[in-house]
Amino acid sequence: MHRRARGFSLIEVVITMAIIALLASIAAPLTETVVRRGKEQELKIALYQLRDAIDAYKVAADAGHIEKSADSSGYPPSLEVLVDGVRDLRSVEGGKLYFLRRIPRDPFADPELEPGENWGLRSYESPPDDPEEGEDVFDVYSRSEGMGLNGISYREW
User: Fold this and answer.
1) Which residues lie below 8 Å from residue 103, measured CB to CB, with a gap of 6+?
2) How would you class 123 by CB atoms within 10 Å of its CB: exposed for 0-12, middle for 13-18, buried for 19 or more?
3) What pLDDT is stored for residue 2 in this prediction?
4) pTM across the whole model
5) Which of 64, 88, 124, 128 is placed for a possible disulfide with 138 were both Cys, Cβ 3.0 to 4.6 Å?
6) How far apart are CA 157 and CA 152, in angstroms?
7) How far apart are CA 73 and CA 137, in angstroms?
8) CA–CA separation, 3 vs 111, rounded Å?
9) What are 112-153's pLDDT values in tens digits?
């Protein structure tokens, strides 16, 4: 009685490898999309946090809680002011109002840049279609040249 050798034939191994390669080729683009979608979600959250802090600063300035000159727009002079805080005029002890714990990072920006350098800044005097920096920060935008999964440039978010 001859015993037959157990194992895989060359054809079985080749077919298995072809199936694995096919599955990997399908999974790679899907993985890239999932990673990109995650970064886009981070960008949305960061923009929301920054814009919310800018708006809170403006509300506090308009309410007279922080010092503001008569010719000022009431928007913060920089993003760093939102983290460093400003003197609260209601506080006798010289307390401060803080609007952010830290400046969030743009997930599509150069990771070697400081978080404050990641963002494009638009002043109150600047038109929306051609944003420029100025004496205050009215809005922020991503400097990334990329296009979102929704077909809108990250700069326009």
Assistant:
1) 50, 79, 80, 82, 83, 115, 116, 119
2) middle
3) 65
4) 0.79
5) 124
6) 7
7) 10
8) 63
9) 988 888 899 999 999 988 899 999 999 999 999 999 999 999
